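Batch manifest, entry 17 of 40.
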Amino acid sequence: MYAQHIFTNAAVWQTGDGASGADTVAVADGAIISVGGGVDRALVGPRTQVHDLAGASLLPGFIDAHVHPVAGGLAALRCDLSELPHDRRRYLDAIGAYARSHPDEPVISGSGWYGDAFPGGLPTRGDLDEVVADRPVVLSSHDGHGVWVNSETLRRTRIDASTPDPSGGRIERDPTGRPTGVLFERAGDPANALIPAYDDEFLRRALLTAQCRLHAVGVTGWQDAGVDIPAFGLSDTLATYIAADAAGELTARVCGALWWAAEKGLGQLDTLLQRREQAHGTRFHVDTVKVMQDGICENCTAAMLAPYTHLPAGAAPEGLSFIDPAELDEVCALLARNDFHIHMHAVGDRAVRECLDALGIAVLSRPGFPARHQIAHLDVVDPADIPRFAQLGVIANIQALWARRDTEIVERKLPLLGPDRQRWHFPFGSILAAGGALAMGSDWPVTDPNPLWAIHTAAHRTGSLADPHAIGDDARTVPLVAEEAIGLRAAVDAYTIGAARAMHADDATGSIEVGKDADLVVLDGDIREARDIGEMTVRMTMVGGAVVHDA
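Output type: structure tokens
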């Protein structure tokens, strides 16, 4: 058998110590057929492509363990603020220009704004009214937990001073009680409902746009953390994935998670089972349910064990648990008994504890099931709960790019936590030291999908010089809780074999081993020698032996 591709003179990354004596990897028929030293001439045929990497790293393909690709693709096709500097005037100019160039759109929709661009940390309806007053404007924040709207949106949704905060949400108000123009969590649902439904073709374009972007940064597979999540102006993309897979357009390996709608309770199980049966394609499968237990710290909707400090008016002192803990136990037991893996969102330390409790019951409810249950985000974890990840076999699904001293974190988030909880802010190193398994993801479009930026931050707890969103006096120079850094080896493994394990694909991908699929990434240098990992670039991405990105 001849190889189609041979990579040689490579710094081959292998799980464990990150390197070995191997400098050559051969690929044939979509799989890795040889890992060793030097080119085996018997594998070189007339069509073999031999790639001399001149010492650059050859890594397993990156796998994004928590991402929302269709939302990321939609951002690029709508009013996208995510690539702009964090500047109020630049945002408003871009929104105004988009509205003028899209006169037929009944609702101006988009995403990507950061609160630190505005005085006081949040935008207002008045800001938007300056540039668009005749049509509703609905713009999701970069984290997806807030919606910025203009006065016309508030008028059409009948949200005013007399409107109560909905369950699981909060309306930001001025001192007189009038809505300011920011709607947190479920309070944004009426505004998002104004956005016309996207047709199948537009959603397909969004998915394929996102896939191109992810391949360009070395991502060969991902977990979509909610194919029917009611956020980012989306409703349901399960059919989008199924159609793209059937058409041969899906080149990545994708595990989808179905959304657990808290308001529908246990009666939604039959629907989840039916939807799971629809998705068994070549590249796409669904075997996971996403359960969201709280919000985020920045708007005080993350569920905390103790009250926030400097609490804003109208906020719940200890945040919000979206599902009552007793019901959450029932939910997780029910899902486990029906062989679902459970992917949970927990930001605050109380939510983390509630999720660990529920997953403990899930494990007992379905003995023998090779569960890959996981909790994502983990902004704050009480030290008493850190050993429980290993004890319960729960994967810590981390978004390491957030673990740095950005202005928004330093000025908005850390004061809410107070000094005692700040020590346990993104405690990835402690979870790892206690034997917990890590998987890493981006949560794109909440933050950028570049794994190299996240790996740099995981290893150093600072932002990369290449990342334009690492904004703050010491975001790139002063580590955020330096003792929680996990180091290069653990960070790369979390974005490769750890993430493959989280999406139940570690038997086929996630490491460079003979017999595994040839999901590979070539960098422009040796990652072990990089001063700033985020400044490195991806030269080539390969999925199943096929080149899907070539710089």
